[in-house]
Design a protein that fits this description.
The protein is mostly helical. It has a domain at 45-138. The chain is 78% helix and 4% strand. It has helices at residues 3-78, 86-103, 106-116, 120-134; strands at residues 146-148, 151-153. It has a two-stranded antiparallel ribbon with strand order 1-2. A hairpin with a 2-residue loop joins strand 1 (146-148) and strand 2 (151-153).
Length: 154
Amino acid sequence: MEFTDLTQQIISALAPLVVALLGALIAYATKYFRDKAVGIKVTFLRDALDRALQEAQAVATESVAYANQKFVEDLKEKAADGKLTADEAREAMSIAVQYFVTHISQESARILKAALGDIGTWVESLIETKVYNNNFFRPKVAKQPTVVGGDQLE
């Protein structure tokens, strides 16, 4: 038996093993890249949702300030007790929600709808939270001077 015959027999014997290993390597690489692609997609979606939520927070703050400036301050000044009626508070909320709907980007609205479903109730809750946290739509109380040991502080 010559060296070339022996080499051919070895190559013939190892060829199925090499093909099987190559197939397994290709399958592993395919799975690896598929998993990486899912990770990229999940990261992209998470980042998109995060950006949409950040925009929603900013627009909600703007909408409350807008409603307060355009509607609430005038009503409070005209009211004897400086408070809004329930109907006025609902109208102020409606103005704020309308501002939100017209000022949120279409892309963020689409992302929020995909993540949350109907966002109407969520938007109202977000705005109510902003109202509460920022003391908008509530009567303003005159600031009382702080007195410490007989001295008035500002």
